[in-house]
Amino acid sequence: MEQEKKHIGPIGIFDSGYGGLSVFKEIKKELPKYDYIYLGDNARIPYGTRSFETVYEFTKQCVFKLFELGCNLVILACNTASAKALRSIQQNDLPPGKKVLGVIRPTTEIVKEFTKTNHVGILATTGTVKSESYKIEINKFYPEIEVFQHDCPFWVPLVENNEIDTDGAKYFVEKDIHKLLKQSLDIDTIVLACTHYPLLLPVIKQFVPDHINIISQGPLVAKSLKRYLDVHHDIEHKSSKNGTMQFYTTDDPLDFESKAEIFFGQKINAKHIKVT
């Protein structure tokens, strides 16, 4: 019994920066009793424009840092890391008893519930679009669904610089949505496939017709994690439950704290950490 206690630890949540906090916020709401450690690799953002090899290496370093901190389960709350690194880590790198999950599958496996036309649009970073991960995963579950993608390189900087309510944000959001919807008149569902994008929802809704569903990942990932823990008792029993949260960043903690509130909805205390 004493030996088992030594292996109990928090759930790790990793993102290249701040966006994963929007997913963490929903996870915390759905599963408040668990302990969590959030790690943002802010010193090396953005991940979205980096190569597969670099994203894989950076993600692996951060995941193993969370393992070192006692986590048995790590959620990649980052679409780029989920697209470019998750499968390789799961197949090649996991120590016994450790698990890593991403944000793409919880979204793609239920997308059919939202579409009637089987035409689904994806808005994402350049890296996620180039990886074709959403297209591959959706068609794995639902071969009949046509997937249309568009990358939005300016959306992340707009959110991180808190320029959501600006004319610049409206300009880029309208332009990118127009480019996506031009690909098919039958798109009736849009997936916001970047954890930053839900913060732009008030602007996005101005330019998306009312009949189109807009899917944010946070609630879907949170519900999927709950189902996962309900089924995987080995991991559930190894997840500590004191309702605590710790936040780490590879960059300046004060800067992280000031921006984190935009995504997480409350003030946090962060510490600096080295992952290499």
What does this structure look like?
The protein has 276 residues and is an alpha/beta fold. It has helices spanning 2-6, 20-30, 52-68, 79-84, 86-92, 104-108, 126-131, 133-141, 155-160, 167-181, 201-207, 217-231, 233-237, 253-264; strands at 11-15, 36-40, 73-76, 99-101, 119-124, 146-151, 189-192, 213-215, 245-249, 270-272. The chain has a 6-stranded parallel sheet with strand order 4-3-1-2-9-10, sandwiched between helices.
Q: Share of helix among residues?
A: 40-55%
- State the shape: globular
Subunit arrangement of the protein? single chain
Distance between the termini: 34 Å
Q: How many β-strands, per DSSP?
A: 10
- List low-pLDDT spans: none
Report the total helices.
14
Mean pLDDT: 94
Structural class, please?
A: alpha/beta
